[in-house]
Amino acid sequence: MQISDNWIDIAYLISAVLFVLGIKGLTKPKTAVRGNLLAAAGMGVACVITLLHRDIVTYEIIIAGVIVGGVIGAILAKKVQMTAMPQLVALLNGFGGGASFAVAAAEFFRGGHPDMVGIIATGAAVLIGAVTLTGSLVAFAKLQELIDGKPMGFPGMKVVNAILLIGSVLAIAYLVANPGTPTVFWALAIAAAVLGLLLVLPIGGADMPVVIALLNSYSGLAASAAGFVMGNSALIVTGSLVGASGLILTQIMCKAMNRSLTNVLFGVMAEAGEAMDQDEVYEGKIKSTSAEEVAMVLETAQRVVIVPGFGLAMAQAQHAVRDLADTMEANGTEVEYAIHPVAGRMPGHMNVLLAEAEVPYDKLKDMDTINPTFEQTDVAIVLGANDVTNPLAREDKGSPIYGMPILNVDKARTVVVVKRSLSPGFAGLPNPLFAKDNTLMLFGDGKGAVVDITTALKEG
Amino acid sequence: MDFVSQLTLFVLAIFLGVELITKVPPTLHTPLMSGSNAISGITLVGALIAAGSDAGLLINVLGFIAVVLATINVIGGFMVTNRMLAMFKRK
User: Fold this and answer.
1) Among residues A249, A257, B26, B42, which is most buried (max CB within 10 A)?
2) How far apart are CA A309 and CA A311, in angstroms?
3) Angle, CA A17 vertex, CA A12 and CA A21 arms, to 5°
4) First to last CA, chain A
């Protein structure tokens, strides 16, 4: 069966509307599941109607591809651990870029009568698509610890990147003048693929949340460019929605880490201020405590705020934390969670990890909401978080992290920090919070310590 | 569709995207990213046309690769987003 292009375009419009309604659903946890289903329905409409397109004459290859991709996708979605979500999103970003690349390539080799706009769009889709594909694979490998998370590079790397980028743009210009030159096309593809590798290799593990968000944006832009190539409204609209989403999340992450996007992209770390002597900060001021003592403090507390960091998730302690919170709540204590934007390894990651442990989402408070409440908080429990609680970011103008938004846990009446040792976080700085008069350090394994506190609290 | 109307769509959709996405709370940012992975699998429609055309082997091979990758995004993206959102739903 074949239908006219008008009907196909109207169906694409319907699916674009469903995508918009789907994202709108994601603005509230209550409507989010329905939103996701609406978006999926939009995808269904777009795919089914495309199958009726007059250019499609054979279905074998389509069916084979859908089965292979569907099985892989379903397995990934079912098996992935919530802690590994950043890796999965990195991988999916890469596949999105790869798909746009392949679609643009197919369109290029089909020939036809491409105009200047068509060729430029093809070039853009190939360039962005290939960069997204290889860049995301590097991000995936770093997050999965297949390769070292440390920044990697060689002298002159930036020059090489600049040459690759300029060369790619020149290749696109050449294709505009001579549309049918496959060698130049493949040269462009290879240059872009290498560029993707070299762009992400020098970025350190701590900056990965920014990179994933940015590659998310690229994958959308690549889809949009593919839409320009094919004159397909569904791809253009959807790709730009995703592109905007990734850009906003990139911005949020950069702000939360006090890093400019250029610094992240070029692997520039903040200037180390005058070296702070760890001993000077900590000496004689650290008060070590025990689980029983913490339980005694918690017993009389009216309000407790738990500050989770990724260390907590690495120790798989989310369920233990929820047990502790349940015990405190049974005691009549109000318990909330303070979530810093970079608490996890990607935007919103910590919220998902706690939701998995059945922590109600309305207890998860973002930084701006929770910060004014620390002064009325009896106990703040810091679990596996470090730099995001460092008062130097607020007070010491000479500090490399000065200006980074932090959780003001030091304003709570008592601060309990659960940590293995006094070792510094990603920023490599001592944390004066640990030496404050109102801070108690509970040294030990995060999960074990939380379980011990809960037990002591139940017995007490 | 001519270039100017394409560009119009693109620019307006970016503005719409910015307005929409800024309203998504931080709690849902991870599902937002996996969900947008799924939505960017819309490239599948282009992939279907390439894979199902009779324009030659190279086109079909590229189309097949694109169909596989885009389907992983669509199926994997929507399913994993659903899995996460279900955890937020229960009280």
Assistant:
1) B42
2) 5
3) 145
4) 74
Residues of chain B with C-beta less than 8 angstroms from the C-beta of A29: 25, 27-28, 85, 88-89
Q: Minimal CA–CA distance to A95: which of B80, B36, B58, B71?
A: B71
pLDDT at residue number A425:
80
Residues of chain A with pLDDT under 70: 1-2, 112-113, 267-276
Q: Which of A298, A256, A286 is nearest to A433 (CA)?
A: A286
Tell me the per-residue pLDDT of A275-307, one tens digit each, with 9 for 90 and over: 567 777 888 888 999 999 999 999 999 999 999
ipTM value, please give it. Answer: 0.96
Q: Is A364 helix (H, G, I), strand (E, B) or coil?
A: strand
Q: Which residue has the tokens 């989402």?
A: A361
Interface test with B, best of A251, A318, A351 (most B CBs within 10 A): A351
Indicate if A387 belongs to the active site: yes
Provide φ and ψ at A51, rounded to 5°: -60, -20
3-state helix, strand, coil in chain A (%, to 5): 65, 5, 30
Entry pTM: 0.91
Whole-angstrom Cα distance, residue A54 to residue A57? 7
The pLDDT of residue A111 is 78
